[in-house]
Amino acid sequence: MGLKNKLFLGTFVHSKALDELEYLHNAAVCVDMSGTIVAVEVECDELRARETVLPRLGWEVAEVEVVEAKEGQFFFPGFIDTHLHASQYPNIGIFGKSTLLDWLNTYTFPLEASLSDPVKARQVYTRVIRKTLSHGTTCAAYYATIDVPSTNLLTDLCLSHGQRALVGRVCMDQLSPDYYRDASADASLAATRASIAHILRADPTMSLVKPIITPRFAPACSLPLMRQLGALARETSLPIQTHISENKSEIALVKDLFPPSATGAADDSYASVYDAAGLLTDKTVLAHAVHLTEAEADLVSARRAKVSHCPCSNSAITSGAARVRWLLDKGITCGLGTDMSGGYSPSVLETARQAALVSRHVVMGANGLAPGEEREKLSVEEVLFLATRGGAEVVGLEGRVGGFEVGMEWDAQLVGLGMIGEGGEVEGEEDEGGDVDVFGWESWPDRVAKWLYNGDDRNTKKVWVKGRLVHQRK
Ligand code: GUN
Ligand code: FE
């Protein structure tokens, strides 16, 4: 909870629409003690804010905390990472030449299993929260592990560090190693209920952390388990997260494991398996969706399920190039996921950059795709929309976070670029702007493009969630 009313002054940049960023200069945003935006004023300097806006709000001027974006700085909504594995953080960058199924067995399951050690879990989960916050991730949809106590710990750490999160205890009762598998569908369901109960005790109004039902992916879940989790989602109205159509061998495995004769679905597609189990809802976050067929994408769209696009991961473990424009054209809501540690980076900014680049591979016809059209390309504005407003919709927080509007919560980052003086030196600290040098003559859209393509955590100066300062760069 932010303890004071706050007045933010300067330039604010946020998405208005998929292809439109809005730039508010000399603006003032007032955030009350609960972390809610109560006023957005343009053409408003500190004096005017003190004389007109704060009295209108009935705020005691002397008790308001003022945060000003300096020259070269701007406020931007916090990033929303719609898909990442908190438990895999120690493995980022470690994937060799593996592809999904061998990557899981070689790198991932042993690490996840080892986090049942509470000391190790605390070390890893503390670090992943700190690290993602330092990259401006104010909200994360986390997969933990199958272990309930350490999943509970992840929840507690999100709350104590102030990161907004969806926390999912991973369900997997088949086709996984003996040392890392739920004993049965019933045991998996019971453990899921226990982890949900913990979250609801720790944050009864789900003001910051929310449970998310997490069948790992179809190959690792029996049909009875998937059906029970689908029923649990209906009973609780909770969101669901899983993986879909990431890799061709995985898709073949799903066809083998779940014939329509078993699922009762009309066909043997991956999406139909989830649909038959009741897992394709308007609160379902589907990671990857690289190889969906036309009919599957139509089904996902009809169910209003969401997609987490994970370009860093899809390139790293050679899964393919998701056709985001095609998904968007079908009316499917998309956001971005780092998918650590399939993805090699904790940064949503890096993921946005890769989303822009991978969309160009689609145009070039890479990865067996027919060459696409120029309009497959995602612009700077579009990938930053996916990283904020799109992500908010994917995780069910639209209207609450992702932009700067009255009534929304203040989940934001202060971004600083390196302003270059007349002598060619950076004004301020030497690494002030990281790799982003701004000479002052660039337009604001060009500055933001420079940030997207060359920025990193050195540019993330301060981060707030629900009005609380949760990261500050030293
Ligand atoms: N499919 C099933 N589990 C995983 C996972 O941990 N990461 C990714 N990228 N895909 C998966
Ligand atoms: Fe994943």
UniProtKB/TrEMBL annotation:
Keyword match Transport: no
Cofactors named for this entry: Zn(2+)
Keyword flag Metal-binding: yes
Key words, A-Z: Hydrolase, Metal-binding, Zinc
Enzyme Commission number(s) from the entry: 3.5.4.3
PANTHER family tied to this protein: GUANINE DEAMINASE
Protein name in the entry: Probable guanine deaminase
Species the sequence originates in: Parathielavia appendiculata
